[in-house]
């Protein structure tokens, strides 16, 4: 049998340190993908993989691995039940497009292995995009993150932290896959005002004034009053080229979340109809 394993195949040995219990049995790529689709977190991570690794998959990037693709792969390796690992190490059987994709993604091998190590509890803080991606790859953490998005809109605008928002932050903090979120570092590639959100969260939700002073001192002086800037709603700020780019990313992420919710609703509806048909069939048999 011609077994085609991703160039990252030995990544499974590293991943076993991070995610215990990984099996060495290879699944067909179709079965692995279906298994991943059955889990909300893995489905989100897989969607991000195909979205952010598009240039790598197409072969446009051969020398290096884009940061967004690297983060997407790390998220995929962080999924529950090792569903993402199963997809990465799946058996292509006859090759074709599947084998080609695996060979091209091999360019990310070394960087992904290095990034996995930074997810340890004793490792240095990671970028906020990577921390969010790891959380989204876990179904429970993804649900907690969505709850946070739904109940902290006033915090995002720099207005205040409501009781529901604080509750959602408490729920999020209890998720193992969210452990890197509060200590993450903003690198300017986020699709939101990361620095202002971190400052507002500490000040309004945790009331950590000392932490705020340190954060403000660590931000380069732009000549403006930062305290006034952090209270100003983000949507009133002048849109820069980076803001426009981030807005597009936000739309793609929201579209992915919408598709995820739709897939979940369709699955529940299908299960409900199946149950109804079985009930009707059982009633007809008895009569």
UniProtKB/TrEMBL annotation:
This is Growth arrest-specific protein 1. Residues 245-255 have a biased composition (Basic residues). Residues 1-23 form the signal peptide. Residues 216-287 are annotated as: Disordered. Keywords: Cell membrane, Glycoprotein, Membrane, Signal. It is found in: Cell membrane. GO terms for biological process: regulation of cell cycle. Residues 128-201 form the GDNF/GAS1 domain. It comes from Biomphalaria pfeifferi. Residues 225-244 have a biased composition (Basic and acidic residues). InterPro entries: GAS1, GDNF/GAS1. Pfam families: GDNF (PF02351). Its main location: membrane. GO terms for cellular component: plasma membrane. PANTHER family: GROWTH ARREST-SPECIFIC PROTEIN 1 (PTHR16840).
């Amino acid at each position: 049998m011609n077994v085609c394993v991703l160039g990252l195949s030995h990544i499974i040995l590293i991943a076993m340190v991070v995610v215990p219990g990984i099996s060495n049995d290879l699944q067909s790529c179709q079965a692995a993908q279906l298994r991943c689709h059955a889990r909300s977190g893995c489905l989100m991570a897989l969607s991000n993989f195909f979205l952010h690794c598009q240039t790598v998959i197409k072969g446009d990037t051969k020398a290096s691995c884009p940061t967004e693709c690297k983060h997407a792969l790390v998220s995929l390796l962080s999924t529950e039940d090792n569903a993402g690992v199963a997809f990465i190490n799946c058996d292509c059987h006859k090759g074709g497009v599947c084998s080609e994709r695996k060979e091209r993604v091999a360019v990310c091998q070394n960087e992904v292995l290095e990034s996995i190590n930074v997810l340890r509890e004793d490792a240095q803080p990671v970028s906020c995009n990577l921390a969010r991606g790891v959380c989204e790859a876990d179904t429970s953490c993804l649900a907690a993150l969505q709850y946070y998005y739904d109940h902290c809109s006033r915090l995002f605008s720099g207005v205040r932290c409501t009781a529901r928002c604080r509750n959602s932050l408490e729920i999020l903090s209890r998720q193992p896959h969210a452990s890197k979120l509060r200590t993450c570092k903003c690198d300017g590639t986020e699709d939101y005002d990361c620095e202002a959100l971190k400052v507002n969260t500490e000040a309004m939700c945790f009331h950590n004034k000392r932490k705020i002073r340190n954060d403000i001192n660590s931000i380069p002086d732009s000549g403006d009053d930062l305290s006034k800037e952090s209270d100003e709603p983000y949507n009133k700020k002048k849109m820069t080229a980076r803001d426009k780019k981030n807005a597009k990313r936000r739309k793609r992420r929201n579209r992915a979340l919408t598709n995820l919710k739709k897939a979940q609703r369709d699955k529940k509806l299908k299960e409900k109809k199946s149950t109804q048909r079985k009930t009707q069939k059982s009633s007809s048999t008895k009569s």
